[in-house]
Amino acid sequence: MLTLDSPLPHGLVATNGTGVAVRPRRLRLNATLRRMVRETVLSPADFVAPLFVRHGRGQRIPIGSMPGQLQLSVDQLAAEAKELANLGVPAVILFGIPAAKDALGSDNYSPTGIVPQAIRAIKDAAPELIVISDMCFCEYTDHGHCGVINMPGELHFHPHLPQGYLLDAPTRELLARASAVHAAAGADIIAPSGMIDGMVAAIRSGLDDAGFEHVAIMSYAVKYASSFYGPFREAAESPPTFGDRSQYQMDPANRREAFKEAALDVAEGADMLMVKPALPYLDILAGLRELYPLPMAAYQVSGEYAMLHAAASNGWLDLRRCALESLTAIKRAGADLILTYFAKDAAKWVQA
Ligand code: PBG
């Protein structure tokens, strides 16, 4: 029998002598008992489903590196949104693949751009579904970076700044403009994902000035320059044509800096914060959860999804069990919302 001489943290003493015997196993004896004392329970309301919307009609293009995920054209999107809503998933987040890209990513701020079209289609089909607009320029720029890039010959060229440098001021202006356009199309939440300094403040004032004070901001406050985004770049057709994103996304080695980033976004008026990726960064998520009273989101990214599928298709892991275990861990660490490509499957699994 278990013997411990020192007190346990809550004042309990495990002993085989005269005191009380503590056997945590008593509460694990059967499934009903385990369910009664379970601390973290997943529900479809925890999930946000990412959707990729592309130009064209009748398009349903499978994404090779993300089994089960599709690029859908606007006309195909409504049915998908309705299905998610019927499963109890409260929200979707949209990523656009435009017909044409340019240096400023103008499709993102065009009222007839791919995402504004998609927002209107979803709002028509499933008005109760919350539509979150991922606000970043990398899917829309011809160079694949998340904003305006310093290039000789371009409109915003700045001779003292390095070539290839992401220019904050013009990027913020375009983010504010695009956010108002997405809000006008019906977006409920704007989710800036570019890690541009000052992006939240710029978007907040852009929305307010355009009459959208009721539209919330979910900031990708802490987004790491992660290699786990690999499959997404195929999904969104958005790899940078030169360099990488580490000049604006965070170094995976840094924790203190995450608190600095979050503090700035809270001060700038973010309504919710996000940590991304999720599973490799649970320490960051748990730390921020303790510190801020805002709702916390975590993004289980494309690579997290792809690796579970890859292992499962080799017969090495049980997909459903490992996906649910990961999602439970993300919620246990402090996520109020989980952006996940498993949203549809997991909504079914947790209902079953
Ligand atoms: C755009 C954006 C990315 C992801 C979400 N928004 C790509 C990136 O920053 O490189 C990644 C999502 C995923 O991997 O699932 N800035």
Concise account of the structure shown:
This protein is an alpha/beta fold and 352 residues long.
Task: Sum up the structure in keywords.
TIM Barrel, 352 residues, binds ligand PBG, globular, eight-stranded parallel barrel, 35% helix, alpha/beta, single chain, 11 helices
Would you tell me the overall average pLDDT?
94
User: Are any ligands bound, and if so which?
Assistant: ligand PBG
Write the H/E string, N to C: HEEEHEHEHEHEHHEHEHHEH
* Sequence stretches where pLDDT stays below 50 over 5 or more residues: none
CATH class: Alpha Beta
CATH superfamily: Aldolase class I
CATH topology category name = TIM Barrel
**Assigned CATH architecture:** Alpha-Beta Barrel
The DSSP helix count reads 11
Secondary structure: number of strands: 10
Largest sheet: spatial strand order = 1-4-5-6-7-8-9-10
Share of helical residues:
25-40%
How much of the polypeptide forms β-strand, as a percent range? Answer: 15-25%
Major sheet description: 8 strands, parallel, barrel
- Coarse structural class: alpha/beta
Q: How is this structure best described in words?
A:
Strand 4 (91-97), helix 3 and strand 5 (130-135) form a beta-alpha-beta unit. This protein has a single domain (39-351), classed as TIM Barrel (Alpha-Beta Barrel). Helix 2 crosses helix 3, helix 3 (114-125) packs parallel to helix 4 and helix 4 (168-185) crosses helix 5. The two termini are 39 Å apart. It is globular. It is an alpha/beta fold and 352 residues long. It has helices at residues 31-36, 74-86, 114-125, 168-185, 199-209, 230-235, 256-267, 282-291, 302-313, 319-332, 343-351, and strands spanning 47-54, 60-62, 70-73, 91-97, 130-135, 189-192, 216-223, 272-276, 296-300, 337-340. It has 11 helices and 10 strands. The structure holds ligand PBG. Ligand PBG binds next to loops.
